[in-house]
Amino acid sequence: MPSLAPAPLAITLFLPDLEDRPDRRSTVDLAHGLLRAGVAVDVVVPMGGGPLRAALNPAVGQIDLAKRHAATSALALARVIAERQPSLLALPRDVSWVGRLALWLGRSDARLVVLEGDAETDFAAIRAAAPRWG
Predict the structure, then answer these.
(1) Could you give the angle at the alpha carbon of 29 between the alpha carbons of 113 and 128, nearest 5°?
(2) Which of 3, 38, 41, 55 measures 20 to 30 Å from 48, CA to CA?
(3) pLDDT on residue 24
(4) By C-alpha distance, which of 40, 77, 43, 81 is closest to 62?
(5) Which domains does the chain have, with CATH numbers?
(6) Tens digits of per-residue pLDDT, 78-123?
(7) In this structure, are residues 113 and 88 in contact, taking their beta carbons and an 8 Å threshold?
(8) Selection from 94, 83, 78 nearest residue 16 by Cα
(9) DSSP per-residue letters across 85-102
(10) Is the CB of residue 40 less than 8 Å from the CB of residue 61?
């Protein structure tokens, strides 16, 4: 018999890389904040390497698309979205078009949030856009 309890809120964060830059570090901090709030979080990147990979909490899902660039990741991201079915996709402004295309290709009704590079501001934006919280 299926559970009557609602599934936890799931959020996918897409980053073009895991280089140690202020906006990327902010997104890692955001992932940890979401995790502390009880949200299931996946961090998706085209190529999995980078200095910030070690900074991610092991409880955060880490998905490597095996693509060289964010620009070539839309179809692979669409597959991840179709499989994981997040409620929300959050990503930096410079790759927001990749997210829009991935949501369209994956025929997903997940909401899209463009990250500003500040963990507190981005957390508030995600909380406001989330279909349900808690």
Answers:
(1) 35
(2) 38
(3) 93
(4) 43
(5) 10-129 (3.40.50.2000)
(6) 999 999 999 999 999 999 999 999 999 999 999 999 999 999 999 9
(7) yes
(8) 94
(9) --SEEEEEGGGHHHHHHH
(10) yes
